[in-house]
Amino acid sequence: MARQARQVSGTGIYHVMMRGINRQNIFEDEEDYKRFRELLFQMVYPIDDTGKEIPARCTFYAYCMMSNHVHLLIRETAENLSDVIKRIGVSYAQYFNKKYVHFGHLFQDRFKSEPVNDDSYFFTVLRYIHQNPLAAGIVGNVESYPWSSWGEYERAGNGIPAICSTRPVLARIPLDDLRSLVEEPLPKTYEVLEFDNSYRSKTDEEMREFFNSSFGIERPNEIQMYSRDRQNDMLRAAKQFGGSIRQIVRLTGISFTVVRNA
Q1: Among 17, 120, 192, 212, which is most buried by a count of CB atoms within 10 Å?
Q2: What's the confidence (pLDDT) of residue 198?
Q3: Quick one: which of 142, 148, 146 has its CA closest to 61?
Q4: What is the pLDDT of residue 13?
Q5: Mean pLDDT of 83-90
């Protein structure tokens, strides 16, 4: 079956989501988040092979990096959307695969996108992106999460180069009003691009119950007694269930590389 064509935005602005294949983590430590943020910066302040600055490949208005996916509010400029996302994805995957001795795809083959055609939906998406960590129960307020663009809005005008173009947004709504808007949870009835609105990190107890109910294993470290092929089956199922790589490593005692490559 042919892939459905992407919807084209009349404004050139899109809400994009990149996710790890099989919901696997794409960020394992602070260095990973920083590397991805550096790649976003390079899209806005690119240089050519001679070191000369060239026009921005795109414009960002918001971003949020979660453990296994990324949200972007992006406008096409010098390059089309697919080329920009490919640049980011390929560069980050090369970094990640080398660091973690990972083989195969890191991201789901096709990123998700939706057009943002008016101001009302623009601000809905901007709120949604910044509220992701809050909705997932990771933080108690939007400003506490270090891996989103909200800090760039709070620091707007301080002269430090930023990834996001905050000026056009703040020209339409003062920072105090925008802060109040972003801090107000969106109604659950709002339809916003997502791959699994119910996704959240699993607790250790939930993972132990998963291994028990799925494989009859009372303690996750009992996986070590099985053959490598059977281990891989169990580990893949655990990742698809929502366990993080580091969590599964900790519970099972199996090496990071084995869990990552399963």
Answers
A1: 17
A2: 43
A3: 148
A4: 97
A5: 96
The Cα-based distances of 77 to 11, 147, 169, 183 in angstroms read: 11, 24, 17, 30
Three-state SS at 13: strand
Contacts of range 95-102, beta carbons closer than 8 Å, 24 or more positions apart: 95/35, 96/26, 96/32, 99/32, 100/28, 100/256, 100/257, 100/260, 101/257, 101/260, 101/261, 102/260, 102/261
Q: How confident is the model at residue 195 (pLDDT cuts 50, 70, 90)?
A: very low
By residue count, the chain amounts to 262
> In the prediction, which pLDDT does 190 show?
63
For residue 188, the model assigns a pLDDT of 66
**Plot region of 161 (φ>0 → left; ψ -120 to 50 → alpha; else → beta):** beta
Neighbours of 160 (CB within 10 A): 8
Contacts 24+ apart (CB under 8 A), 200-203: 200/136, 200/137, 200/242, 201/67, 201/136, 201/138, 201/242, 201/244, 202/241, 202/242, 202/243, 202/244, 202/247
Could you tell me which of 217, 209, 247, 218 has the C-alpha nearest to residue 233? 217
Dist. CA 100–CA 167, nearest whole Å: 38
Angle at 149 between CA 146 and CA 150, to 5 degrees: 80
Contacts of 181 (CB under 8 A, 6+ apart): 123, 127, 173
Lowest mean pLDDT of 23-37, 148-162, 240-254, name the range: 240-254
Q: What is the pLDDT of residue 50?
A: 87
Residues linked to residue 20 through DSSP beta bridges, in sequence order: 107
C-beta neighbour count of 138 within 10 angstroms:
15
